[in-house]
Each structure stands twice: as structure tokens, then as C-alpha cells.
Amino acid sequence: MIKRIIGIFIPILTCATLFAQDYVMFNLTTLELRKGQNAALQTGIKKHNAKYHNGEDGAKAYAWYVHTGPDAGNYVWGMGPVQFSHMDGDLSPDHVRDWDNNVAKYAKVTENSFMVRDEKMTYNPKNEVVGQNILVKRFKVKFGPRHMNAVKEVVGSITNVLKKTNADFARRVYISPFRAKYELMLVYPFDSWTRFEDGQGLGADFWEAYEKINGKGSQQKVGEILENHTHGITNEVMTMVK
Predict the structure, then answer these.
(1) Which of 157, 188, 219, 220, by CA, is between 20 and 30 Å from 49?
(2) 223 vs 81, 82, 138, 144, CA distance in Å?
(3) Phi, then psi, of 36 in degrees rounded to 5
(4) Phi–psi pair at 180, nearest 5 degrees
């Protein structure tokens, strides 16, 4: 839907992807501040979302401020859950004008992506969909199915341990159906920044449990697989604009 506002060309699918009827997908747009106008952009986003993306007549939209990573100081605007059919609808001239006046005036789009939640690899004990405070780990997966399969196998092995240990936190997994800046995204919601005193995402005691289940040296193998099959990882801590 937002593609009609920002004029982004959506690339061809890199592989045939089948979706369940009720898949969970988000349209994510990175917004880079113009002239550092934080207050104006936050106010504008809230006005635009309240008027056109309040969840009553369509998908709801949110915005997060990015604290860490390559996009630190910028914002991520997210709409969802949404389906691809949602993108077929035309935006009204007033809708486009409102985006221009309240959002585009204060920020420019640097990335637009679609991320579909992988239910098999997701561990989501409270069935949450959107996190107010989140740690987002993004992977740029090397080209070719064997690379993605290797990464998914590792991510799935972590999910297995989370389930077996009844972990008290969620880790949602999203995969892009398009070739994008990042193809796989891990989302860890958190309540307090003190969470990071015990590690990033999984916690200090997780790997002890992982090796107990998967064998000695299995943690190192995870790192080696991710190193060999991706171009790296970014860690982005985001807090929602309210």
C-alpha cells in the first residue's frame, strides 16, 4: 500500500513461496530524518497513522525509533499484519497528501521491505504480534537456496531449545519473500533495557542449555554456520513512538 506513496519498485520474487491463508506479514519502511526534525516527524507519523492506519478500516501502522545499528537515529514505520492483496488498493489523493505533509516532509525513505513470519521457527508463548520495545537481529543471507536452508536449520535448532526449556521470552522469525537488504529477521520483544545486562536476545544461560541438548561444541558450530552462509548481522534496538 505504501508503495504508491513512495514509488518504490517491488522486485521479482526470487523463489516460489506458498503462504497459508492467514499468514502474518509486515510492510516495513525505514525513514531517514531530514534536518534532524525528530519532534516534527514523530508528531506527523502519529497524526497520519491515527487518521489512515488506526486498524479500523485496514491494517494498523506503527513507528519505532532506532537506537542502535546502521540505522540508529532513524525510524522504522511498519504496517501490519497485512497481506499482499492489501497492496492492490489505490490510495486516495488526501491519503497521499497527508503522508507528504506529515511524514515525507520530515524524512526520506531509504528501504522498503515485506517480512513474513515463519511459524515453525517462531517461539511466541504469549501469541503477541507487535512489540513496543524490540531487539531486531537482521541477517543478509548469501545468495542461493543452500545458504538460506543452512541458516534456517540453525535458527530452527534454537527454536527447539526455546520450546524444550519453556523459555519465558518470545523470539519471532521473519523471512523476506524478495531479495532485499536483509532476508531474515529475528525479533525479541523486551520490557526493560536491563534485559541486555544478561546478553543480547537469548540470554547468558541459553547456550548452556543449547549445548546440553545438542552436544558440546554446538554453540561454536552455530556461529560458524552463520558466518559461512550470511554476510553478517546487525543488532537494532527499537522503541515504539507513542
Answers:
(1) 188
(2) 31, 33, 15, 19
(3) 65, 30
(4) -140, -175
How many angstroms from the chain centroid is the CA of residue 182?
10
Entry pTM: 0.89
What cell numbers appear for 217 in the block?
561444541
CATH classification of the domain holding 64: 3.30.70.100
Q: Mean pLDDT throughout 19-39? A: 87
Let me know: does 181 contact 168? Beta carbons within 8 Å. Answer: no
Q: Which helix (H) or strand (E) holds 228?
A: helix 218-229
How far, in Å, are 1, 11, 104, 190, 223 from residue 95 at the CA level? 11, 25, 12, 33, 46
**Domain residues for 82?**
22-116
Nearest to 26 by CA among 52, 63, 71: 63
Question: Which residue, of 94, 116, 138, is where some domain finishes?
Answer: 116
Where is the domain boundary, 66, 91, 116? 116
Q: pLDDT tens-digit profile of 118-176?
A: 999 999 999 999 999 999 999 999 999 999 999 999 999 999 999 999 999 999 999 99
Domain count, the chain: 2
